[in-house]
Amino acid sequence: MPATRSDTEPLHGRAAPGSAPEVTIVAHDIGSVGGMERQLEELVLGLDARGNRVTVVARTCRLPPGSSIEFHRVPAPGRPFLLAYPWFLIAGTLAMRRHRRGIVQATGAIVLGRVDVIAIHYCHQVGPANPSRASLLFRLHVRAAGVLKRAGERLCLRPSWTRAVVCVSDGVAEEVRRHFPRLADRVLTIHNGIDTDAFAPGVRAEEAAARRASLGIADPQLIAAFVGSEWERKGLEPAIRALALAPAWTLVVAGGGDEQAYLSLARELGVADRVKLLGVTHDIQLVYQLADAFLLPTAYESFSLVTFEAAASGLPVLVTPVSGVRELIEDGRNGFLISRDPELIAARLRALAGDGALRERLGRAARESALAYSSSRMVERHAELYERLAATAG
């Protein structure tokens, strides 16, 4: 029978000790820079450490040496999406049918046929498509990709094809229930997890100080970290405009986008010397260690992993109340919930600049809240679900 479990109800019925089920994870890519790819890496390595035999069916799988993960590569292109998605839909389905063992989890609507779990990191029925480049051809491609993603979800998210739908936040779970009501009783939330040891206050302090100096940021100038690509959606423009009204702050940006357009805006506002673009970086941890606060006036997120990482790093966070963030941040207690209004953002930045005790209090509370969202907890929740599904199979 299908698993019927709400996002707040605990999972019971664990299998007997030593009976950890085999698990097959199907995904486009595992490991590397992206938030979803890093979450999958944590999941498969965590399951492996727990004693689950894990099979991965994916286009790429970048894991550290020493794991016993069995990887089956799907020969498929990574781009353009309009070719890569249907290609993997077919090739990934064939590979899954050949190599599947035990409980099968697909990462999104990426294979055809029955699986036990579909993990939803982003509901494309509502998620906005914000092109990172301005060319007409690229924007048309993004629009067509959005149509294809929504069609893929409608094709794959059906009651006869899955026993459980795992969403990364309560907000995404609400979206899936609204757009796929026939699956509502199979939807549950398992939040993304963070490495609360790696993302912690004070780690790599000497490296952070050296990096700050290399960027030409002298004391007592404060640093606000902005992490993410898709800068239009993430709100880099209002962040730069707020900077013009908060002279005590420098904005350090990690991620990729139209650098010339945003540097031009910074020059117009007279803050070009206080906007530091780092580009795409694998070392996000060091970016948080550089900073005195985290700023992300984003229009939409499904979880906002970077906000949780920043909070775990002990930073006061200023973020819009999007999915995931609403479950972490209480305005004024462990951060500030903001809008995309530059004047409001600047007012919060000025308050933080003038009150070191406030920065410390918010950062400490943010860290305490983030500890509930550890990677180990995320892996444990998945393992509990797999054991329940294995116990009710057939």
What do these coordinates show?
The chain has 2 domains: 23-192 and 374-391, Rossmann fold (3-Layer(aba) Sandwich); 205-373, Rossmann fold, CATH 3.40.50.2000. α1 crosses α14, α7 (236-243) packs across α12 and α10 crosses α13. The protein is globular. It is an alpha/beta fold and 394 residues long. 47% of the residues are buried. Strands 3-2-1-4-5-6-7 form a 7-stranded parallel sheet, sandwiched between helices. It has helices at residues 35-50, 81-99, 136-156, 170-179, 205-214, 231-234, 236-243, 259-269, 284-290, 305-312, 325-328, 342-353, 356-370, 375-391; strands at residues 23-30, 54-61, 70-73, 103-107, 117-120, 164-167, 187-189, 222-227, 249-254, 275-279, 293-296, 317-319, 336-337.
Structural Rg: 21 Å
Shape: globular
**Strand share of the residues?**
15-25%
- Count of all domains: 2
Q: Under CATH, the topology of the largest domain is which? A: Rossmann fold
* Classification by helices and strands: alpha/beta
CATH class of the largest domain: Alpha Beta
The total beta strand count reads 13
- Percent helix range: 40-55%
**Can you summarize the main beta sheet?**
7 strands, parallel
CATH superfamily of the largest domain: Glycogen Phosphorylase B
Which regions contain 5 or more consecutive residues with pLDDT less than 50? 1-18
What is the ordering of alpha helices and beta strands? EHEEHEEHEHEHEHHEHEHEHEHEHHH
| Arithmetic mean pLDDT | 91
CATH architectural grouping of the largest domain:
3-Layer(aba) Sandwich
Helix count, per DSSP? 14
Widest β-sheet, arrangement of strands: 3-2-1-4-5-6-7
The N- and C-terminal alpha carbons lie at a distance of 8 Å
